[in-house]
Amino acid sequence: VASMFYTLTRQLSEESSKRDAGFERKIDIHQMHFESLSSGMELVKEFDSKVQDFESVMNSKIQEATRTFRLLEERVQCLERNRAEISELKENMLKVEVIE
User: pLDDT tens for residues 22-74?
Assistant: First the structure.
C-alpha cells in the first residue's frame, strides 16, 4: 500500500510539474506578446507624433506660400497698372510732339 501510495504521489507530482511547466510556458508566451504589443504601441505613438509634426510644418508652409502668392498677385496688378500708365504717358508724349 505504501508503495502504491508513493507511486501515485510521484505520478501526481510529475503531472503537476508538467502542467505547471505548461502554464509557465503559456505565461511566457503571453508576456512576449504583451511586450510586442507594448513596443508596437510605442512605435504607433511615435509615428503619430511625427505625422502631427509633419502636418504642422506643412500647414505653416501652405500658409506661407499662400501669403507669398497673394503678395505676388498684388505686385503683378501694380506692374499692370504701371504698364498702363506708361502707355498712356507715351501716347500723351506723342500727342504733344504732334502738336508742336
Answer: 778 888 888 889 889 999 999 999 999 999 999 999 999 999 999 999 999 99
Q: How many CA atoms lie within 13 A of 52 on its CB side?
A: 6
pTM of the full structure: 0.52
Q: How far is CA 9 from CA 6, 19, 20, in A?
A: 5, 15, 16
In this prediction, residue 1 carries a pLDDT of: 73
In angstroms, how far is CA 62 from the centroid of its own chain? 17
Grid cell listed for 83? 504698364
Go through 77-87 and write b for each residue having 16 or more CB atoms within 10 A of its CB, e for each that does not.
eeeeeeeeeee
Which grid cell sits at 79? 506692374
Nearest 10 degrees: CA dihedral of 47, 49, 53, 54? 20
